[in-house]
Design a protein that fits this description.
The protein is an alpha+beta fold and about 425 residues long. It has three domains: about 80 residues; about 100 residues, Kinase associated domain 1, KA1 (TATA-Binding Protein, 2-Layer Sandwich); about 180 residues, no CATH class. The chain contains ten helices and 19 strands. Strands 4, 5, 6, 7, 8, 9, 10, 11, 16 and 17 form a ten-stranded antiparallel β-sheet that branches. This is Cytochrome c biogenesis protein ResB.
Length: about 425
Amino acid sequence: MNQSNSVWAFFASVKLALVTLFFLAITSIIGTVIPQKETAQVYIDTYGQNTANLFQIFSIPDMYNSWWFLGLLALLSANLIVCSIERFPAAWAIIKADNLATPLKRLQQMRLRREWTSALNVSDTEATLAATLNTNGWKNQSRQKDSGRLLFSQKAPMSRTGVYIVHISILIIFVGAIIGEMFGYKGSVMLPETQSTEQIYTFRTNEAIPLGFEVRCDLFEIELYDNGMAKAYRSELTVLENNEIVRQKTIVVNDPLTYKGVTFYQSSYQPYQSFVVTVSDMTSAKKIQAILPYQQQHVEPNSDLRFGIINAKTAGQSVTDIKLWLKDQSGVSGNYWLSDGEQKIIEHEGTTYLIAAKQMYATGLQIAKDPGVWTVYVGFTLMIIGLLMAFFMSHRRLWIHIREEDGKTLVLMSGSANKNRGAFEKTFSALADQVQK
């Protein structure tokens, strides 16, 4: 029995919580400083062979999934549960206590107290004081007590549960993280313009995971600084199910597309030495789009139309201007300069064309599915509520005992608060001054 009590006391210890939180903080710092989930060669090149081997033994490259880090989280969870079971009944007993049964002797011994004599009888004094308390937001109740009348009022008794709400919120956050780890995934895909995919590849194992729907990159656009560096870029994505469009959105960094719990983030891009060329006959409304390598021509079947890219100006790896060559049934060829992505109407030997050309890119998407994210949100919401209750609210109680003695009406006002006693002392003094008048 003593051994059982010792084990219980160990897990109920506040010292255990502090030590566990200390080690979690230290290890989290290590996991932030040391890059996670890199290849073994990266750690060897950076830290040396011996240190890299030590990292592998203690799972430092994947620390947040290591047995010892998960063990620390489990130890903290057990500590929170046992602490709550150990201490919550006492807090709940105070919340539900019959405060009108408080002995007069205890009220007389409280540090915060005020005594005075009322000019009214007991009944009228009680009515006057009750009305004054109600006016100041102190709803009260009364009872016959020790040859007199006892009024009691309190504020924020449930603030005593704030710390336990924080405990519950941490456990809920852990549950959400477990759900996300077990049933979610994180991956990426490099998706060329005009192409689509129904699967992505996980970061850790490069395993292919089916999405359950199709996502297509219709267009990738990039803005450049004068030195050729990327200023901003965006992707026009289309989600299809059964070859039908169900969602379309232009995504940029920090403004992703979410569909069926799967979120697509704009993360990178890759330029190609190919071009997306569109030629539309304005008369017949016939539109031709082709992906062409540099200096290769497209021959449209059953037509005399041919076109290709014969020259381009670049800034870094990105193309800024494109020279399009075009030849149609007239037998005459023409060359036309366009800015990358520009649409231009041209007259070519009596035929009006709308032409456009742009360098081809692949958009780099990061994909995440986390079915536990709403559980985590609930946990964080509860944590904020619990912290507000624990740190910014206190359980404040007031007793006023009214009795007749030697033909006089004596009034004793006492009060207590479980936190922020200095502020409550000012509140008590101001309220006592008011009710005494």
